[in-house]
Amino acid sequence: MQLDDRKKKILHAIIRNYLETGEPVGSRTISKYTDLNLSSATIRNEMSDLEEMGLIIQPHTSAGRIPSDMGYRLYVDTMLEDKEREITEMKELMIQKADRMEQVLKQVVKILAANTNYTSIISAPRMHHNKLKFIQLSQVDEHQILAVIVVEGNLVQNKMFQVEEPIDNETLLKLNILLNTSLNGLTLEEINLGMIAKMKEQAGIHSQVVSSVLDAIAESIQVEEEEMEIYTSGTTNILKYPELSDNDRAAQLLGALEDKKPLAGLLEDSQEHENSTGIQVYIGSETPVQNMKDCSVVTATYDLGDGMHGTVGIIGPKRMDYDKVIGTMKTLMAQLDGIYKRKESDD
Amino acid sequence: MQLDDRKKKILHAIIRNYLETGEPVGSRTISKYTDLNLSSATIRNEMSDLEEMGLIIQPHTSAGRIPSDMGYRLYVDTMLEDKEREITEMKELMIQKADRMEQVLKQVVKILAANTNYTSIISAPRMHHNKLKFIQLSQVDEHQILAVIVVEGNLVQNKMFQVEEPIDNETLLKLNILLNTSLNGLTLEEINLGMIAKMKEQAGIHSQVVSSVLDAIAESIQVEEEEMEIYTSGTTNILKYPELSDNDRAAQLLGALEDKKPLAGLLEDSQEHENSTGIQVYIGSETPVQNMKDCSVVTATYDLGDGMHGTVGIIGPKRMDYDKVIGTMKTLMAQLDGIYKRKESDD
DNA sequence: TGTTAGCACTCTATATAAACGAGTGCTAAT
DNA sequence: ATTAGCACTCGTTTATATAGAGTGCTAACA
Questions:
Q1: Of the candidates B148, B245, B254, which has its C-beta nearest A236's C-beta?
Q2: How would residue B92 be classed by pLDDT, with cut points 50, 70 and 90?
Q3: Which end of chain B is more exposed for a tag (fewer CB within 10 A), N or C?
Q4: Smallest Cα distance from A134 to chain B, Å
Q5: Are A251 and A275 in contact (CB under 8 A)?
Q6: In angstroms, rounded to a whole number, what is the distance separating the alpha carbons of residues B134 and B154?
Q7: Phi, then psi, of B134 in degrees rounded to 5
């Protein structure tokens, strides 16, 4: 069967209406809602066709139709116009706090959730492929050394560790130079056993300190590994949509949102399947997370520059306002893109 | 009317039973449940008295009784035995990650939520009255200076800022010495305008850098101020209790939990009203947060040593297992108490 | 005087049935 | 090709009956 122009219009009307009301939509509604000037009977015939094509579904015999996953898919793929929306407050807020990436991310999810009325999540950039930029050891007090590790993108990690006895200033300076000359410019993967051995040799009596620093580096990576940093906001928004808020489903969903492990999987998956637009839409059962099969998820990959990239996602009911969400995502991505890179070249 | 021993026992039995089942409890149940060997009729008389005294309530004429807020209050105040419970895993996990306070706190809420099946929250210690311990400026690259600020309790703050042109090593060293000698040992409030002027004078041409550092210090405090850091865990646990999980109530509650502003108020309030045991119980309408008037909240103040103290809370249904919760809280507090102080004296 | 068995009464929760109404599919007329 | 009309379906709502848990009260008992 052919999906002619009229069928498209009707499908579009059905979906739009369903997005608004969350109720199955009947032929009469469409007959009035559109400017096609067709009677409900005609619409009924068309709807029957659309159902046959798998684009809409009848929840039960005598109910209106709701979009199927496939219907949504078509809607998302072909029927959305690109609307540019101004989210000026975003930009301001982001630039303001740009010196702390964590803050930026938290800000972003918050704004997204507030703007869309859905749940939003964001993953912090992984630092694997980032280059070490700077290492500094300081003697904080008699028995404690503070290691400050800066990687590209000005991500700062602190690690405090104990030493048996104070290290004098000069030695500390030497160690600092050793560490910086040996490690600077390397990605975290490039630090291998051979180098470590060499550095320890040069550090002589203080090889223990070198070990500690390397441990610190390793540890700070590992933390990111085992539980990828993820921020969420507006988790309770899902309670606003009756089809998700009945008790079992809501508990499952909120549970998944709190757990963050499944979320990590989701965001990773979306990065793998990245397409040209950078925006991914999972509809219903398309999502890799079982608990979210009644939801839709829109994800986008951001790139802050300096190799820092992560994923941001919006989770809502299948009848989410794809148009608005994708629009918001796009402008947001535009704002985030290279926010750090730009900053550096600004100076 | 007198609350004699038998009445106490019956009230106790009613509450315990209600905590378990969440259903109104009838006279027959109590008659069998207790070892009083009384008939249901007698119990009925006693219950009638207890109701008259305002300790229990009938939801409707022909239902069993449930505890009133007052009844819970009595239960909490007088009827709980101090049971010591072992939460060994807590200690281990905490010591493990003790070098990052943030991690410790996150760990603590998680464990609490998991152990009790209620929602738990914790506030990060305020740093107001902490002394500055160490300041270090480093030249990260041509135009960027990293300031690392360590306060008592090894709380580390990083702040990156821009400079017009590179500062040579020697000058940086001097600035470091200046900052450290001027500011070390001071609480953040003690830094006044006079000192600042003096330092700027000594810094001469680099007074700008001093300003930046002071700004950084001020800013890092301010962040804590405006939105007190609060971690939550197990928020979805409340959905396990039918009396809280109907749609409206649940949405309100979860909203309040996500917002964190009301939570901050709650935790502050509890710190103000601290009593000798360090543990506070808010039952139903006693809580300062409107949205939680159907819940009970148990809070406790912890003290990590070095003036770092904050509050931890557990939020659950009014029929929460006060006994267990308070027990858990107590042992937890014991674990947390002076965890940093102890650590330092260990070395 | 305290305790208890018994019973009528109350009120919710559950089950069952009936009425309603939104929406469909089909047919026949335009 | 479109549409009016109509019988039919099926979930939702409303009404009604029933069951059961629990109470308060009374009277009997130790």
A1: B254
A2: low
A3: N
A4: 6
A5: no
A6: 9
A7: -165, 135
Domains of chain A (ranges; CATH) run 5-67 (1.10.10.10), 101-124+228-345 (3.30.450.40), 132-222 (3.30.390.60)
For residue A223, what pLDDT is reported? Answer: 52
Residue of B140, B161, B258 lying closest to A235 (CB–CB)? B258
Q: Which helix (H) or strand (E) holds B298?
A: strand B295-303
Query: For A260-298, how does the pLDDT look when each residue is reduced to its tens digit (9 = 90+)?
Result: 888 989 998 998 887 778 899 999 889 999 889 889 999
To probe the interface with A, which of B93, B99, B161, B306 has the most A CB atoms within 10 Å?
Answer: B99
Element (H, E) at A120: strand A119-123
List CB contacts (< 8 A) between B140 and chain A. Answer: 133-134, 150, 154
* Chain B nearest CA to A162, separation (Å): 8
Q: What is the token pair recorded at B86?
A: 């072992």
Average the pLDDT over B81-107 and give the result.
58
Contact yes or no for A86/A79 (Cβ under 8 A): no
Chain B residues with CB under 8 Å of a chain A CB are 99, 133-134, 136, 138, 140-141, 143-144, 146, 148, 150, 154, 156, 158-162, 233-236, 239-240, 245, 247, 250-251, 254-255, 258, 347
For residue B135, pLDDT beyond 80: yes
Name which residue leads in pLDDT, B341 or A96. Answer: B341
- Give the chain B residue nearest A114 (alpha carbons): B259
User: Which of A140, A236, A240 faces B134 most closely, judged by CB atoms?
Assistant: A140
Average pLDDT over residues B4-9: 92
Q: Answer whether residue B72 shows pLDDT above 90.
A: yes
Helices (H), A85-168: 88-96, 101-116
Q: Collect contacts of A172-176 with beta carbons under 8 A, ≥24 apart.
A: A172/A137, A172/A138, A172/A139, A175/A137, A175/A203, A175/A206, A175/A209, A175/A210, A176/A135, A176/A136, A176/A137
Distances (CA, A) of B213 to A155, B206, B308: 18, 11, 23
Contact A251 B239 (CB under 8 A): yes
Contacts of A347 in chain B (CB under 8 A): 143, 162
Instruction: Give which of B300, B233, B225 is closest to B261, Cα–Cα.
Output: B225
Write the secondary structure of B223-237 as one string of H (helix), E (strand) and C (coil).
HHHHCCCEEEECHHH
Residue with token string 């229990």: B56
CA-closest candidate to residue A320, choices A71, A72, A80, A81: A72
Chain A residue numbers with beta carbons less than 8 Å from the beta carbon of B144 are 154
3-class SS letters over B79-132? CCCCCCCCCHHHHHHHHHCCCCHHHHHHHHHHHHHHHHCCEEEEECCCCCCCEE
A337, pLDDT greater than 90: no
Q: Find which of A117, A140, A184, A241 to mutate to test the B interface (most B CBs within 10 Å of its CB).
A: A140
- How many CB pairs lie under 8 A apart between chains A and B? 86
Q: Is B324 exposed, middle or buried (0-12, 13-18, 19+ CB in 10 A)?
A: middle
With a cut of 80, say whether residue B83 has pLDDT above it. no
pLDDT, position B86: 44
Spatial distance from the CA of B41 to the C1' of D22 (Å): 11
Instruction: Select the residue from A104, A110, A148 to test the B interface by mutation, using most B Cβ atoms within 10 A.
Output: A148
The helix/strand/coil state of A246 is coil
Assessment of whether the complete model's pTM goes beyond 0.85 = no
CA–C1' nearest nucleotide, residue A31: D3
